[in-house]
Amino acid sequence: MDGAPEAFEEFVAHFGAKVFQYSWSMCGHRDDAEEVAQDTLLKVFENLNQLREPERVRPWVFRIAKNACLMKRRKSVFAPRHELSLEELMPVRNGEGEHRHIDIADWSALPEDSVLRSELGAEIARAISGLPEIYRPVILLRDVEELSTEETAEILEISTDLVKTRLHRARLAIRQNLDAYLRLTAKER
Amino acid sequence: MSHSFEDCSKLFALLSEYLDDELPANECSELERHLADCPPCVAFLESLKKSIELCPDCGSPAGPAPISEAVRSKLRQAWRKALEARP
User: Fold this and answer.
1) Is the pLDDT of residue A75 over 50?
2) How far apart are the first and last CA of chain A?
3) Whole-angstrom Cα distance, residue A17 to residue A6?
4) Which residues numbered 86-145 in A keep a CB inside 8 Å of some CB on B?
5) How sure is the predictor about A111, in pLDDT bands with cuts at 50, 70 and 90?
6) HSE-up of A168 (CA within 13 Å, CB side)?
7) CA-CA distance, A162 to A167, in Å (whole number)?
8) A119: buried, middle or exposed (CB in 10 Å: 19+, 13-18, 0-12)?
9) pLDDT tier, A165 (very low <50, low <70, confident <90, very high otherwise)
10) CA distance A187 to A181
């Protein structure tokens, strides 16, 4: 990290936006997300000397953000722990033998248009926010931030096996949600 | 097509690890043998893959509000202090 003024601005803009997005999905409140992003940046700068490996700055920042989210979490967000079962995330299956098929949208027709793609992006963001709390940070870190399984496990302080299990269920739930969205929009077209 | 939906269900739990190249070799071979003969699973896997690929595009409807000058100055101060403390 260099000391140039633009390095400060770049860091604040980049991680401020990333942490805000993560926190909004986790906290569910825009104001809280903005506070978490600012608190995280402050904590990051105050503890910069503890960062031993600069190339691991992303997981380090997100670990601080995760803890800031837990501190900020409003009572209303405390919900009974709900676990997604694989059974409920499987597609509806019909037929026998060679006539077996699943009910699925036409995924080959994903929109190329940037407006429609951003609508899909917004749909994914809504779907992630609607996931039970234990799945949200896993998919945000693995598939949105594209951190590794090991980095995600380290940030969330859970095993890599648990990251994989939760990630798979979260992905299936997002897929299911998008599948329903694609069918609906296909009908409207 | 010789297998049933029960075979598909057994392999359903492995799809993410397969896409992430994190599946042990023996399970990977078993899954690939199944996929070679199961169009419904191939279609499902493809939809899962596309859904994952879309995730990095999911932005917030709007970014954070600009940071106030008071907070920015506090941050800048902490940043400078951190740089000064570097060995």
Assistant:
1) no
2) 50
3) 16
4) 86, 90-91, 93, 97-98, 100-102, 104-105, 107, 110, 117-118, 120-122, 124-125, 128, 139, 143-144
5) confident
6) 23
7) 8
8) middle
9) very high
10) 10
